[in-house]
Amino acid sequence: MYYNSIIETIGNTPLVKLNKVTKGIKGTVLAKVEYFNPGNSVKDRMAVKMIDDAEKSGKLKPGGTIIEGTSGNTGMGLALTAIAKGYKCIFTVSDKQSQEKINILRAVGAEVIVCPTNVAPEDPRSYYSVAKRLSHEIPNSIYPNQYDNLSNTAAHYETTGPEIWEQTEGKITHYACGVGTGGTMCGVSKYLKEKNPQVFALGLDTYGSVFKKYKETGVFDENEIFPYMTEGIGEDILPKNVDFSLIDAFIKVTDKDAAVMTRRLAREEGLFVGWSCGSAVFGALEYAREHLKEGDVMVIILPDHGTRYLNKIYNDTWMKDHGFLESRDFATAKDIIQ
Length: 338
Ligand code: PMP
Known about the structure:
Elements: E1 15-17, E2 28-33, H1 43-56, E3 65-69, H2 73-85, E4 88-94, H3 99-107, E5 111-115, H4 127-137, E6 141-142, H5 151-167, E7 174-178, H6 183-195, E8 200-206, H7 211-217, E9 249-253, H8 255-269, H9 275-291, E10 297-302, H10 316-321, H11 333-337
Parallel strand pairs: 2-10, 3-4, 3-6, 4-5, 7-8, 7-10, 8-9
Antiparallel strand pairs: 1-2
Helix pairs in contact: 1-2, 1-5, 5-6, 8-9
């Protein structure tokens, strides 16, 4: 038995019970570990779907170029899809992204253009604007636009949602997921709520992002926007893939709480995952501590792998420099013996 190309191995990722970080919490907390996808992230699923749909609609023709503004993981999924189907890729990324992510994209043959982070989305230098401009200038190219392309949500409605429903045998009561483009959150939530409207959908957001305030007040508040470090979640725009009616509540998580929880997932659960996984678990457990009852089943999406963050949150010196590690976490064997 074999797969015809690497992209056929996307999906069917495992659900793994969290055993240590959940101490004191009632019910069962399960993690959907998306780094088992070939591009090591949840974004492989929607990358293939966006390209399949662009082919079907005739927008993407053989030998074409895929141009996208991506924080890295979508780029990886698109690059693998492009290799399997014979397209070229150009990605624009913001300069806060890990060097590892950029190197990985170049390793799989993509051209990567680094753009400044701290400019407004409509600024011509932003990674959104540069991607759009290139797609107008380069013939036979498409700009999938993961933010507003509803193939993104559809991918999770068709794959991630049904997998979670089947893996929990319909027993899921709570679903928690970080929100960036909103595709994962809303595609899965739509599927689960159709199966059982009682399933509670919790969105995890960052400080510096507009989502939580918008959900609670209906106001797009620019005062909520400021630079933050967690990669992949939170936005300074409202992407079309975020359907607020499918998200019951948001919790915001700080860069530090997310980083510390990510390191705990690696050391205590053996889940060597990315930074936004710590955001998702920290926020979900905050909710679970108060609301989960015996018999409840919570599923948390863990979007990507830890290798991409080795020089950041998995580096003790970097953590200390950012004030994210307490001195007791930094103690050496020598300190303890003394
Ligand atoms: N975490 C990481 C590391 C990501 O790359 C992304 C994608 N932006 C997300 C979380 C959020 O997923 P989504 O775009 O489906 O909301």
